Hints:
Elements: E1 5-11, E2 17-24, H1 39-48, H2 54-58, E3 62-66, E4 85-90, H3 96-108, E5 112-116, E6 133-137, H4 143-149, H5 151-155, E7 159-163, H6 168-177, E8 181-183, H7 200-211, H8 219-227, H9 230-240, H10 254-278, H11 284-304, H12 312-318, H13 322-326, H14 330-336, H15 341-347, H16 353-366, H17 369-379, H18 383-404
Parallel strand pairs: 2-3, 3-4, 4-5, 5-6, 6-7, 7-8
Antiparallel strand pairs: 1-2, 1-8
Helix pairs in contact: 7-10, 8-10, 9-10, 11-12, 11-16, 11-18, 12-15, 12-16, 15-16, 16-17
Amino acid sequence: MFAFIARQPILDLKKDVFAYELFFRDGKNNCFPVVERDEATNKLIAQKYRTLQLDDISCSKKSFINFQPEALEEGLNPSLDPENVVVELGADEHHMDRLLDTCKQVKNMGYKLALENCRVEGEWQSIIPYVDMIKVNTDKCNYEKLSGNLQQFLDADVKLIAEKVETHEDFNICRDVGFDYFQGYFFSKPESVSQQSLPTSKLTLVELMGASSSATFDVENINRVIEHDVGLSYMLLRFINNPTINKRYKITSLRHALNYMGEVEIKKFIALLALTNLSDDKPLELLHLSLVRAKFCDLVGVEKNIGSNPPTAFLVGLFSMLDALLDKNMSNLVEKLPLVEEVKVALCGGQNELSVYLMLVQAFESGNWLKVIRISKLLEIDQKLLHSMFNEAILWGNGVRKSISPHFPEAKT
C-alpha cells in the first residue's frame, strides 16, 4: 500500500513502544497522501518498489497519522482501522471553529484523536471533550510553567505525549511532570558514560562481535562455541528457519545451518546474536532500530558494490547504537573491538562512505526527505529505490526481531 514512508516510535513509561508516528514523503507536510492514483499507477509502484501494509510499518502497534483537515472532508480511507489508527491534527488556535468541527467529525468516524504542537497555555475547553491525546513539543521548554498548564488536560483524562525528548534527563523530567508517552531518540543515547569495565559475560559477546569483522575466521571454532551453548544453538535454528530469512529449506541441525548460511551470513548472525544478548536490559526498540539500520546499510552497500567480507556496511548499521546498549563512549568501545578501520571511523563520527550510509538511514528515520534526496544524489542511487530498500529493511527487521524476541506481536490477519 505505502511505498514512501518513515516512522518514529512513541514509547510508554516503561520505554516500550506504544505506537509509531508515520511520515509520508508523498503527502503534504509528511501528512497522509491525498493524491488519488489510478489502479495502473498503484500496480506499477507495487511492482517496481517494495510497498508496506500498515501492520508491517507499525509492527501491529498503533499508527499515528497526520491528516490535513481537507483530507478528512470526504472521510478516511476504508483500509484504515479505527482500532489501530490515531488521527493527528495540527492544533490551530487561529481557526478554532474549523478545528472543533474537524475534531467532531473524526470522533464520529470512530477514531482516536491527537492534537499536535499543542500550546498548553491556550484555551482548549471546547476542544478537550473530543481529544484523546495531546502532543507537546518539550524542546527548550520551561517545565515548571508547563506543569501548571497541563492540569486542564490531566483533569479531563487526556493522555499527554512529550515530543522532542532527546535525553534521558528530559525523559525523567517529562515523566515526573505527568506525561504518559514520549517521542524522541532519548532511548538511543547512553544513560551515563562511565569507565567501569564490562562484565565478563558481555565482554565475551563484544569479542564475538569482533570476529564478524575479520576478513577470515575459524568457522570450526565458532561452531564449537555455539554447540556448547544450548541457548545460542536454539536461537540460530529459530533465526535461520524464519521465513523472512529462509523460505526454501527446513534447517534441522547446527552444522546444516552453518553450511547453508555461508561465511558472510554466519558473520552477520554472530554479530546480531551477540548484540541481542547485550540488549536484554534495554528498550526492545533500540535493538529493532539497530536491525533496520543494519539491513538498510547492507542493501546500500550491495548497491554500491563495496564488498561483503567482512560485511562492513551491515556491521556499521548494527553497531551504530552500541554505546547506548552498553552505556559507554563509542570511541572507547571500538578500541576493544577488532573492527576494520573504516567501520571504526564511521561509528565514531568520522567521514567516509559508511558514515554516509548512517546519515542516510537516520534521515529516513526522521522523515527528513530533503536530506534523503541530497544523499541519494551523492551516492548516485535513485531515491525511490532507496525508499524500497528502507521498506525491505523494515520487513527484515520485523522478521528477525520476531525470531529472536518473544515480545514481538503476531501480525493481525
